[in-house]
Fold this sequence. Notes:
Layout: H1 3-18, H2 22-56, H3 77-85, H4 88-119, H5 123-135, H6 144-153, H7 160-183, H8 188-196, H9 201-212, H10 214-230, H11 233-238, H12 247-256, H13 263-298
Amino acid sequence: MSALQTSARAKRQVDRANRVPAGATSSRSSLHVVSQAATWLMGALFLAPFLLFFLNTFKDKAHIFDAFYMPDLTDLSNYRTMLRNTDFFASLSLTVVICAVTLFFIVLLSSMAGYIISRSERKWIKWMYALFAAGQIIPAQSSMLPLYKLGVATHLINTPVFLIIIYVAGGTAFASLFFAAFTRTIPQALEESAFIDGCGRYQTFFRIILPLLKPATATIVTTTVYWYWNDFQGPLIYLNAGKVAPLMMSVYKFMGANATVDWGPVYALCFLSAIPMILFFLFTQKYLLKGLVVGSVKG
């Protein structure tokens, strides 16, 4: 048998193997249609509460609980009432500052701690790793009273600085473990080359290691910023009497200031408070998913 005949025979065998029966094609098409329909249905179920939430920002008091009432979307009276009776932009600025400063220090301190934990062979450093891990099982509620007394004793209670310190202290343990796991995947040969070139420990970390930790940093930022943005318990306890309240506290105070709650302006305040995080998620979701996948593989 010639080589040409052998090649033709092999090609026929491949075509026969790749040929899909007509029944199987129809079954795959039906399954694709069903999966697409299920996806759209699930998307509609998740989107419906948000749509109702948005429509409620335009409803008057008489129709606020009527789910099928379609309000006039050009009527911005609820938004005007909310902006007239709250310090929305001051609260927004304060919340942005708290989140930005908190995440900056968490990333800076946790990445350095994770780098040392992953590279050092000293026994007390290993104990630090165990200490960070143990910190994850202690309920945050058990430390509220000591922290409140500490804030009063240091005269930092009802200041954003004290709230940021608590956030950083609470978030550093988990982030350090995450950075330590990620740093172990970075080859030590890179650091040895930097040492040979004359870099010190700090130069090696900031010029070599920290840029390589971008996926881990993106994961930490995108998964924790929502907690700090939407936190109500922390400001309620440690920042209750400040001149300007964070957004979630401003919602609570705005509701408490009215003897009978007018839900339209409250919904408007909640909607405007949620917009920054919605935009943040839309612009960073690909980094969030990429970071989670990288962390799951290399961690």
